[in-house]
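Late entry, written up from scratch paper. The run itself happened at the end of the previous shift, but nothing got recorded in the book at the time, so transcribing now.
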Amino acid sequence: MNSATMLKSVAIGTVVGAVAFAAAGDAMAQKRVKWKMQSAWSTQVPYAGESGVRFVEAINKMSGGNFAIKFFDPGALVPALETFDAASKGAIESAWTTPGYHAGRYPGLSFMTTVPFGPSLTEFLSWKWFGGGNDIRDRVYAGHDLKAFDAFSHGPETSGWFKEPITNLDQLKGLKMRFFGLGAKVLTKIGVSTQLLAGADIYPALERGVIDATEYSMPENDIKYGFYQIAKNNYFPGWHQQSSVSEFLMNKTKFEALSEPYQEMIRQAAFAQVIYTHADADSQQFVAMKALQDEHGVTIHRWPDEHLAVFEKAWREVIEEESAKDELFKEFADSYFAFRQAFKLWGDAQSMKPTYLD
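Output as recorded:
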């Protein structure tokens, strides 16, 4: 058994024990249920779309085919960025998406996906699951008859594809750039004209000059979308997105109408994808980066420390400004930073650099 197969087996295996009580004689558990799931990413998109496919397959296997969730590609039912309203109204039962796509309604929800200059996945999930972060999200979603579980994650992204090297941050002023989440607010402060586009819409916009530059995801994903064909300069680190967590979003009433075994299948199958997808993604990126350099003529850049300092200063200003005008944003921010400050005692005590890698 290779490592990928083993990981997949472990991921699926974690849910089997949790739902073993859904015995054949349990009439509720055997009730046939069909749901529609609108994804923000197509089935072929590494990690994001692929994890959604694994998720629905796991539900199907555990239920013996009695609970079927059908995966729909972006736009098949509703536009990729409009699943919040569609699930809230019950037009679709569920969506494979990210809280960051709902930030136009509640900017603070961006904290649920990723935070600029943020922590590793373990610290991030510690806050979300055990430090009160998801409790705030759940309260907001309940007001719209929505329910969500964290569903997949991945590590740091690249922080930009540019047609020309960026040697001075003045070059960013007036640039039209696709950017995600709270990082977009940071770049706006330093003069970038940002907009949020779904993955499938980015390449055409870049090709037609609707945008001048973009960020999107990890190197393997970015290769799939072909950004390197137009922009040959790729920047690191992903200061805006050090770890990312997405969600399985549901109509709350429809979720609560499910039998308890089916509810538990959803919960455990979603959580299994968090670790599986994160490990899978990290295992592939150095291969993708090498391909970008050797096969596609891309130049890999690292932002100078002085540029990263400018981004971080702008981020601190964003926190103050958004917190002053948005109580929900402030609640998310206060909870997040209080947890990080407390976690620092543990995190700093364990921090070290392995010298054998030098």
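The chain has 14 helices and eleven strands.
(Scratch paper discarded after transcription.)
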